[in-house]
Amino acid sequence: MIRTQELSKHFRGDGSPIKAVDGLNLEVSEGEVFGFLGPNGAGKTTTVRLLTCLIAPTSGRAWVNNLEVGRADQQIRAQVGILTESPGLYERLSARRNLEFFAELYGVKDASGQAEKYLRLLGLWDRRESEANTLSKGMKQKLAIARALLHEPPVLFLDEPTSALDPEAAKTVRDFIETLRGQGRTIFLCTHNLDEAERLCDRIAVFRQRLIAVDTPEALRRQLFGRQTVVQLARLDDQFAETLRQFPFVKHVDSVRGDGESGKLVISLDDPPAQNPGIVQTLVDHGAQIQFVNELRHSLEDIYLSLIHNGDAGQGGGQ
Amino acid sequence: MNQVSTVIRKEWEDARRNKTVLSVVIIVPLVMTALPVAMLFIMGRVPVAAQDLEEMGRMLSNPIFAGMNPIEAMQSSIASFMMILFLMMPLMVPVTIAAYSIVGEKVSRSLEPLLAAPITTTRLLVAKGLAAAIPGIVMAWICYALFLISARFLSASDRVFAFFVDPMWLIAMFVLSPLLTVLAVNVGIIVSSRTSDPRSAEQLGSLVVLPLLVLLFGPMVGLIMLNSTTFWICSVVVALIDVGLIYLGVALFQRETILTRWK
Fold first, then answer.
1. What is the ipTM of this complex?
2. Looking at residue A162, which CATH number applies to its domain?
3. Which end of chain B is more exposed for a tag (fewer CB within 10 A), N or C?
4. How many structural domains does chain B have?
5. SS (H, E, C) chain B
């Protein structure tokens, strides 16, 4: 559905050119919700602008819905919906007129009907005649999302859809994206909100001018940190770790002291569901008093920070 | 064509709610119309000095004032200079609208979703241009009509009135005026794609009025004579400039430049 091949965009800088996007290779499948993560200035918005034919690539190629960027720009524009960084509404026009205008521009047959459909769907019907400048930030963002959907595009680009929104408004927008996910649309989601990315996205890409890593959050977690079991003990004894290191399938064991005698063992394993029972049995046999056994799940934030800080740690992985 | 009319309707709806634009579109032309009407009215009633009558006598020798008495010749002569005001109207209105319709969209960040829509640059510019030009032209014609009605009933004789609807005036209002409007719109669009503030765009765009000063001061210093031929020549020159500016406008209106220059 979306494919890029060594896609690059360089801007003229004061001295040397500024590489906003450098050799991006990406493939997003139909119906996939794809998270595009990266720090400020990483080139996420530039990538979205390239893929929506707002700017032209310096080199490389890209396809959206099997149409090539630079060769079928008008057709691509007609088949994608875009939520830009700021809502960019016509502030003096009413919510309804804002939508009707874009519906007509995209050639939607029943522009008024389609505007009504999305105003109702996003809970804005009661404010349909309000000028956009009187709407709250959350309402404006919802209106901008509605605008992106009016022509029922199969591909949707959402650039920071919940930034600058209060938690309640952000939740409404997130819930709405969840419903879009169920409609089979391909969604390219640029976000800083890692929680949001983990909840909504099938796969994520971590990007800073170049693609650092791309995969499912779970696969990236395994690639970076492996699978780890945490055994919480009432009394931590150094011999427990030593005993576990005898097992060939145990890759690594860390002892972490807690309050008093308590502590925990962090054990890296290949297949925790199959290997945990043996681990627990051995510890019990050696007199360990086990309080809890959990799988250690690193947050997406850990994954993101690790990838960003290590630069190319996951380069090419999972592609 | 649907997209063009859609954009035009939106532009007008937006402009109607913009007090700055609305005041320029309505108030300025009305004031500019009131000025020549007031002059005609006053000139018809204020006693004229002997020295001025002598000057008027010389004026009568100009064939365009044939058959007029000195007062009528003076009224026609002064009103001819005021005609420049009618030519300025369709310049000022579109420049203001164009400045807000393009740079204004840049500032409010609404231009990016618009540029992401499947509308070609040419159609977008045609729509923006027409949305800016039509009110200017229509307003100029309305004001000309108001001027004629006022002149007919308040101040001017049949001979003076006939002078205001002679070919020179008609060429100015119905040929040169629309061509100047196209010029103003194109200048507005070009300036818009190079600036980031509506007021700067408006001020820079207003410079398009300057060439008209040749028509105002030229006759005074004997450089040119105001007659049909002069206006035909001006129309041809402006038409040629328009063609060049249309190409330049489309070439300079680069979506990428406009988007990436937003700071």
1. 0.81
2. 3.40.50.300
3. C
4. 1
5. CHHHHHHHHHHHHHHHCCHHHHHHHHHHHHHHHHHHHHHHHHHCCCCCCHHHHHHHHHHHCCHHHCCCCHHHHHHHHHHHHHHHHHHHHHHHHHHHHHHHHHHHHHHCCCHHHHHHCCCCHHHHHHHHHHHHHHHHHHHHHHHHHHHHHHHHHHHCCHHHHHHHCCHHHHHHHHHHHHHHHHHHHHHHHHHHCCCCCHHHHHHHHHHHHCCHHHHHHCCCCCCCCCCHHHHHHHHHHHHHHHHHHHHHHHHHCCHHHHHHCCC
